[in-house]
Every structure is written in structure tokens, then in C-alpha cells.
Input
Amino acid sequence: MRVLVTGGAGFVGSHVVDQLVAEGAEVTVVDRREPAWDNAGARYLVGDLADPAVAAAAVAGVDAVSHQAARVGLGVDMGDVGGYVADNDTATATLLAALHARAFGGRLVLAASMVVYGEGLARCADHGLQRPAPRAPAHLAAGRFEPGCRRCGRPLEPVELDEDVAPDPRNVYAATKLHQEHLCAVYGREAGVAVTALRYHNVYGPRMPRDTPYAGVASLFRSALAGGRPPEVFEDGGQRRDFVHVADVARANVLAISSAVPVAGPLNVASGQPRTVGELAAALAGALAPGRPELAPLVTGRWRLGDVRHVVASPRRAADALGFEARVDFAAGMAELAAGAGSEAEPKR
Output
């Protein structure tokens, strides 16, 4: 099978490339930068996917596409909106136009994201299941981080999300990731192609980008500890996330490409074992700086309006549809991450 991996020189994409090559696929990579982790079994094209000529060259002759290329993270502020739209939406549109021009009818797998859920769903003991309202700046500034019931105002308990929960993107990155899903779904309907949108949860592991505004929280914490600084935990550290190892995420892509029956629609790619951000910081501090209380996590109370409080999702549909279950244990993954601190290259963006 001939597979195109867009963004295949970056963090997740390079792991997808490695696993596809190991499975015997003929892999083409398109990325705007030279690969930091090249695979001798893959062919590399350096160029911007938003360039129609680059996209046309990349899709020539391929049987399947793993679309990993994207600008990730929340960014710095609204000034980033043009970059996110260009890298996520325009580049995806250009890729799909190139696939349309060659009447592509193979598998299309999209690196989607859990950020499309926003705050998801939560439950009030008295007033039942509801969608939390966007958190108010005044509440956040006062340290009231838990979303409140729309009727009584009491803190809500987050509910495990499945893929049928309506999206509710609450920052620019989330909006562009949802638009990617919509664009790919439209292509799938018109071309008769099974489009699998893998909604990644918080991905970590080897080759993770260094300390940048676009890196994930695990990377930021690790960079601080490697530099002799305590990890700074926003809010009160009680935010719940699902941290899933990059090897598991790459395996989900390979399963989606190679499954006997094509799988259409969104699938959560998660470990199924949510942790708080405070627990993540403590685990990394324990692995990277044991016996150094001065590097214990520092809970700052700081907040960002575009952040959501909890995202806890069910991986059951991916298990049923693809046979996917995360294999890397959280403690083992944190130890591996600590062992590789400082060894990664700059991220591809």
C-alpha cells in the first residue's frame, strides 16, 4: 500500500511513518521542513501543503492518506488566527482539492482533536446532565475554576464523552480542527471515501516538541524541570485530561488505514484513564527531580480564557471499530518522557 503522511516530519507524524514503514507500506511524507527524524524507508517532499503544486505532487499515486499536518496548541492570542486558518483549514482544503483532481477513492485518516468538544458534558446532582456555559473571566479571576450549574451555580461533575456529543469549540485552534473534520467529511460523502477522524487526546512521548507556545502541557512541564525550574500549574491543577502515548496514537492511525472494513466518522483516541494536570506535573517532577522539593509543582492560579476545565472521553468506539486500545501505561510513559528530557528537536509547524 502506498500511503501519504502529511506533516510526517513532526511529532506524531514521524511515529506514524515509522509504524507504516515497519508494516511494509510505501510511504511518502510531505512537510514544510526537513525531517528531524527521517526514516530510510520513506520518501520525503519538502514543501507547504497549502501550495497546490506541492499537494498535487504529494498525492500522486497514493492509496491512502494520513493527514497529520496542522498548527497545534492554543497559540498566544487572537493574533494567531490567520496562521491557524492557513495551516489547518486552507492546507486541508488544498489537499482535498488535489485528491479530488485525481479522483482519489482510498482511505483518508485525519488527525482530529478532542478540543472540538469544548467543556463537553457535566452533571449537577440536583439538575442533571447539561452543557457547561463558557467560564466567566470574573469567576476565573476569583479562583472559581469549576463550571457551575446553569440553574443553581454549584460545581458540576464532568461526564465521560463519546463521539455523539455535539462539538462546542471554544478557541481558534478548536474551531479550525472542527472545520478540518467538516471539510474531510464533505469530501468523503462526495467521493464515496471512508474518512476516519481520530480525535487525539493529550499526546505525549518521544520527539515531543520543546517548550514553545504551541507545545502541550507535558512538554512545558518537562522543559521547566529539565531547566531546573518547578513546573507551573495553571488554575488549581484539578483540570482533567486523558494523556495518551504517541506510539498508541500512531498505532490507531495504522489500524484506521489497514482495517479490513473502512471506518467512517470520529473516534476518540485516548487511554481511558484520565488524570489531573496536577497529577501529571507531580509524576514528571517525581521522575525527573526525585528528592528535590524545590522543583515540586507550583500551583499558580493563573488561567487562560480559551482553556476548558475537563475533557474526559470514552475510547470504547475505537476499540469496537478498530480494535484499538492504548497499551502504554501512564507511569511507564512518564518515566520514558523524563529519560528523554532535552533530547527532542524543535517542533515542525
